[in-house]
Amino acid sequence: QKEVEQNSGPLSVPEGAIASLNCTYSDRGSQSFFWYRQYSGKSPELIMFIYSNGDKEDGRFTAQLNKASQYVSLLIRDSQPSDSATYLCAVNIIGDYKLSFGAGTTVTVRA
Amino acid sequence: DVKVTQSSRYLVKRTGEKVFLECVQDMDHENMFWYRQDPGLGLRLIYFSYDVKMKEKGDIPEGYSVSREKKERFSLILESASTNQTSMYLCASIDRGYGYTFGSGTRLTVV
User: Fold this and answer.
1) Is B43 in CB contact (< 8 Å) with chain A?
2) CA angle B20, B79, B36 (to 5 degrees)
3) Distance CA A88, CA B42 (A)
4) Residues from chain A contacting residue B43 (CB–CB below 8 Å)
5) Where does chain B show beta strands of DSSP type E?
6) Chain A with chain B: Cβ pairs closer than 8 A
7) What is the pLDDT along chain A (111 residues), one digit of tens a residue?
């Protein structure tokens, strides 16, 4: 079983819609959760991190964490063509700086 | 601004060559990592280092070695390049828990 799994996509949404990305993880010791955005041919860049259960909002992005269900999600509101990218979910466990990554979900925002 | 610099964006090497991939960070971070990224497989950890002259194997260390003689520099070495090592290689560093900063990546082709 993979440590971090994401819905494989690709996910296509119209401009202005909400894009919803999901991620599950297997290690209950996971402590920190990160969402990275990666444009084609570029390296990943951090867009959100969350440590506590509940929602965390940053502009058009909302991360949601449910540790009991071992589930973290990312919502992109008012999607723009510039949001078209691959989104990577990453987790680490207590006391460890290493991150485990999901395979990513590719999002395409249609104008 | 935080910066991780990888020496080459694109490399083409021949099978059997010894290949050096260099990574330098200017943030005085102790923790540095090398990943490779392949379509459908996500990011996989090759080696990491938590301090100068310290190194630990990641999930896929076979065929690779590393060197960390100075805090700011973490080098990945392909002892004898093979075609299955054709990939995107990403270096990252982290301070204390706010996610990685990635370098721009090196796309290596082994022919």
Assistant:
1) yes
2) 65
3) 8
4) 44, 88, 101
5) 4-6, 10-13, 19-21, 23-25, 31-38, 42-49, 56-57, 64-70, 73-78, 87-94, 101-102, 106-110
6) 48
7) 568 999 877 999 999 999 999 999 998 888 899 999 999 989 999 999 999 999 999 999 999 999 999 999 999 999 999 999 999 999 988 778 888 999 999 999 998
